[in-house]
Amino acid sequence: MTVHTLRIDGHDVAGADGQTILSVAAENGISIPTMCHLDGLSDTGGCRMCVVQIAGSPKLTPACTTPVAEAMEVTTASDELVEYRRTIVEMMYLERNHICSICVANNHCELQDRAEQLSVQHFELPVINPNVGIDATHPLFAIDHNRCIMCTRCVRVCGEIEGAHTWGVMGAGLDARVVTDMGTPWGASSTCTSCGKCVQVCPTGALFEKGRSIAEGSKARRPYLPYLRAVGQDGPS
Amino acid sequence: MSETATPGGDGASQRRPVEDTHPAVSAGLSAYVCEAVSCLSRSSHEVLTKLGTQIAERGPSRVEVKRVGCLRLCAEGPLVHVPQSGQMFSRVRPDELAPILEALTAGPQHAASTTQREFFERQVPIATENSGRIDPESLDDYLDAGGYAALGRAIRTMTPGEVRDEITTSGLRGRGGAGYPTGLKWNTVAKATGTPRYVICNADEGDPGAFMDRNILESDPHRVLEGMAIAAYAVGASAGYVYCRGEYPLVVARVRKAIRDATRRDYLGATIMDTKFSFEVDVRLGAGAYVCGEETALIASIEGGRGSPVPRPPYPAVSGLYDRPTLINNVETFANVPPIIRNGGDWFASIGTAGSRGTKVFALAGRVVNTGLVEVPMGTTLRAIVFDIGGGIVDGREFKAIQTGGPAGGCIPAEFLDMPVEYESLTKIGSMMGSGGMIVMDDTSCMVDLARFFMDFMREESCGKCVPCRVGTTQLHVLLTRITSGLASTADLVTLERLAGMVQRTSLCGLGQGAPNPVFSTLRYFRSEYLAHIEERRCPAGVCEMAPEAVSA
Lengths: 237, 553
Prior knowledge:
The structure holds 2 protein chains of 2 kinds. Chain A is of the alpha+beta class.
């Protein structure tokens, strides 16, 4: 196996051929904020939270999908990058409807965590907030699209781990939604195995178990499915 | 099965030698009727049919009435061209064919108006050399014009490496917008490992006001197929796709017919021209998504997936369609390939400027007299394009700006009219070459409204995969709408600039990265218009309607 040496934030590090910047950085204790990434699932580079600067490249690149290369010089946390990440968090908040105090995921939310981590204190950009509805037709789970940030983890875990391919993405631009069975109500889905993986991987309160009250302040997040983590540690298969 | 793609047409109407079987062109006169979609929509097919009938009934004899591709001067359609006399009849009505019949009876004489002469004489057609000369639905016509000779020469007398060298020598750069060196791209695909390899022709032309690729494919589909076949030989590909937007039904019909005809006569398919080289081509249709012109989204769409881009690397040259090495070039790029192989790379490199070789096809639209298709050498000034070829501004109004590069390009104000049009020079002043759409604006256009229009387009066309583009384009549109309705504050302008920069830097693909460009370029050259909207609550061009609350405040 070919090994590359490179520098991330001034640290000399080594990475295997094909390994991503994100995973090499994580191995060396350098934390790059992520949102759509989840160990064990394929990466799509959609949320843009993990964009880093590679010396000599005019463009910013997502750390989760860019493989390391010999003598690469990566900057993960310049002022510019941190500011962009703050704006991305702001956009995720303003796109739909995120009011933490009345959310099942309050204090268990990765979007909230990211906002705290990046010290997002106020919003300047226009609020969009369309009414996008809830699908509560499934007997055990429900999805509140107002809290969905379109990370597509549910789509990937359903296809790549459960193999059910129930979840998909429909619509474009701001009208994009995660949908079950190409747009049929979740409760009427013939492919859903009710395994609950999508609920487990959802970073926000969009996907949740029924029967949990907001007062409980929890969407019953269990530790991530053990095998999902195991897959992640072995790297993408 | 009907072999003709034109609605209401039939095979017999393709050529109409009236008196005898001699080739009419050498013996007598011809009338070329434009049947590209712009003229067709103004009933040019009826013109063709009636002209044929009337000549058959009343003479003159030995006149060939022929369907041809785009005659370029779209503003004046339907167009009928008499090549022997150089006469171009414009705005022809099916019930008023007498002047054409008279001209055909009288014989050769020059009567083209001055504006028309300017429009045609400054042009150097290479990619569009057969446009308006041959019947786009006739393989024989294309062969008579020297078609498929370049392919024969390439596969019989040249190695794939020699073909690639010729393209490299020519200095041809991608005509789809970014201007990536074509020879370098071909070499990258040729060196990548893995088979089969694919050649894709990107015909998903979607910029507002752009119709270069449509006219090339409608007028001369075989040329693009020949270019693709040469490319396939050069990079070792065995299959290819023409990815065409679904809104171009005539293109699809003509390309499909061309593929069928060429395959039947061994110019495509297995064992091309009795050599070992095989290349199968098929058509794939887009379903109306602008983002599918982006190469990774285009590949996803061909594979049957959702048309959303994926981060590069890996580049399609290394891992593209079905994870195989894939060459993707634009329609116009492929259209330039046969003449390069025929005349040599040095010939092509002698046209244009040092950094930008050859010619470029532009679709001239907007507030200009001669809207239509224009092919000029690289380095021609904007003034020559707008005023000499374009005939100036409609109603003699004042030129304000020209938008190049589509919704991801920028506007160019009057101060740069004498600048030569090249890839680098356009980028330097905040616009870009783009695929070739040019929209001319006069003093009746509001530049803030223009930026808002393009942002609305991008917002609508964002695939929704990445956050900065999905959310950012909508927020930029909200801010621009606030400005055009007189409700914005100076702080909104600051936010607009900051947000535009962020969307440009962090978006996943070219759509999001390019979306803020119209905002940047209008701010750069027309900031005063923004300030008038914000501080004085008025639109200098009188286009934007101020919200009632803005006026009363």
